[in-house]
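The instructor's notes for this session suggest beginning with a concrete chain rather than abstract definitions. Hand out the sequence below and ask the class to guess, before any prediction is shown, which regions might be ordered.
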Amino acid sequence: MNVKKLYRAVAAGLLMAGALWGSAGAVDPADPAVMGKVVRFPMKHIAMKDPVDTGTLIFSDSPEYPERPGILYGDKVSGDCRVYFYHMNQSWETCNVVVMAYNPADEPVDAVVKGCQYARPSSSIYSVGKTLSMMYYEGDETIHTVSVPAHGYALLGERLDHVVIWRGQLFSGIVDVELPSPMYVSTIMVPSEEDPIAFVQKQIYLPSDSVKLRGTFTGKDREWDALFSYAPKDGPAYIKVGGEDDRYLVGRDVMDNRLSVNVGNYGVEYRIGLRTKGKGDLHLYFNPQGGEYAGVMEVTYNQGKKDEVRKIVELPPHALSIGKEDVYSMQYVDTFRAGTDVNLRFMPPGAANLPVRFIVVPDEDLRSIAGEAKTDA
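After discussion, reveal the predicted structure:
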C-alpha cells in the first residue's frame, strides 16, 4: 500500500468511528494543524509549459540605499514598459524619487501612462512591499497621456514628485507606460526643493552598490500555463515559482555596461494558468520556501454559469509577513470546484523571497490528512 492509500485508509476508519468533527466530516482547510500536515505530505510537481515573457522591465534597486540625490538607473526603451523602483533615502536631505522620460526625437511624442502606484514611504520594508502590491491589484488607474517635447523631458507619474522621503525611509513604486517610439526612461532621486527637470540635466549618475540589482529586462509579464489539466486523482501537487524550473530574468545594466540578473524576478507579473478536470473540491495553498514573504495575489475563475470570481488575497492576511526561517509555513488561499480553470496573478515585491509554491490539494486527500492530524492531536 502506498503512502497516499494508507492516509486514505486511516481517514476512512476514523470517519467510520466518528472521530472526525462535524456531521459530514467537514474539514477546515485553514486549520494550522491540517496545513502543517499538508506541507509535509508527499506531492508531485505540476508540469508547466515554457514561459512566455513579454514587455520590457526597468528595475531600479541599486544603489538600494543612495546617500545623495542623482540618477539611479535609466535606459532607452520603447513599447510596453514597466518601471519598478525600490530605494531607501540615506542622504541627509528630504528627497523625491521620480520617473522621467527624455524624447530624443525631433517631434513631440505622447507617452501613454497606464498606471502609477506607490506605497507610502516607511522604514518597514515588508509593509512597503505588501502595500505596493495591494495598490497594484486593487488600483483602478485612469489611462492618460504625457506629451514629451522634442529633445525634452517629462515626468511619468507626476504624483511621485509630491511624495517626500525622509532619511531612513524606503520608497517603492510601479509605473506602467506605453512608448510609441524609443525614449530614455530614468529613475531619479531629487532633492525635494528642486525642480526634477532642471535637476536631471545636471547628469549626476549614481554608481551601483555591491548587490547591483538593477537593469533592463525583456519580460515584465510572464505567462506560464500548466502542461496538462490537473485532476483530483493526481493527488496533492504544486507549482513552484523560482528555482530550477523558473528562470530569473537576465538583462543588461547599461549604466555599468554589464549583464544583470533579476534575482527574485522583482517587478515581474506572473500570470499562471491552471486547468482542472474531474469532480470534487480543490484547496489552494501558498507556501514560501525562500524566506520571508509579504505581498498580494489575485485569483480568478468561473464558477459554473456565474460571472467570473475575482479575489485579492494578502500573503499573509493577518500578519506582516510569512515564512521567516520556516520553509513549512503555509497559508490557505481559496477553494474551488474541479473542472474550473484558475488564473493566478502575482508580482514578487521588493524584499520578498523566492522560491514559493502554490499547492493544490483534493478534498478527499485533505480529509485523509486531517484525520492524521486529528489522531496526532
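Then share the key points. The helical segments are 3-16, 32-38, 125-138, 196-200, 363-376. The first strand starts at residue 44 and ends at 45.
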